[in-house]
Every structure is written in structure tokens, then in C-alpha cells.
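To whoever picks this up:

The nightly regression suite flagged Putative transposase as changed. Nothing in the input moved, so I suspect the structure step. Input below, exactly as stored in the fixture:
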Amino acid sequence: MHCVFVLHAHLVFVTKYRHKVFTDRHLTRLEDIMQTVCANADTEPVNFNGDDNHVHLLVNFPPSVAPSKLANNLKGVSSRRLRQQFPDLVRHYYRANRPWSGSHFAGSLGGAPLTVLRQ
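Regenerated output under the current build:
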């Protein structure tokens, strides 16, 4: 069986209680971590950006990958690696040992050009 697909998802992760946690060095490391996780999950990161309390990730993924599982994997791995590399972030982990909120946003994009999505 042969399958051709173009599936894109826009994933947004926010910090726990929307605390302003991330600096440029944290965001740079998060981008590296998320690219590695995506590669291991047979997905392709297309675009990454973020601010002090959230990140956006645009990914191209195959039909065999559930966006919710990918999102949970991205949050889990990035949380663990950030804790290892930046122990100073622990002050932002109120009553939990993770920087992320328990929820996330995942939206499908239907093939719109990236320039349109950015607007």
C-alpha cells in the first residue's frame, strides 16, 4: 500500500501558571531538544519560536503519529532535559517538577502557506 500525505500541526506549550520562565538561551536549547524528539518520532519540525512563557512548534507528521502523543513526548523530554541542564529553573516549578502546564494546543493547518499562518 502506498500513502502520500502532507499533515502539519501547530503545537503550543505554555509554562505552568504562565510564569515567565524562558530566556533566549532556554529557547535555543528547547529548539534543539524538540528537533531531536521530532527526528526520533519520524516527524519534521518546520518552524519553532517562543517567548518567556510559551513556545510554538510547527511540525510535518505522518498519519501513524498521533499529535497528542507527540506533544506529550515533546513536553516530557524537554522538561527532563531542561531540569538537567538548567537547575536554576526549579524555582518556577511550583508544586511539580515540570515547567509546562498540563495542557497544550494542537491545531491542524490544512496546507496553508507558512506566510499566511504567520500573519
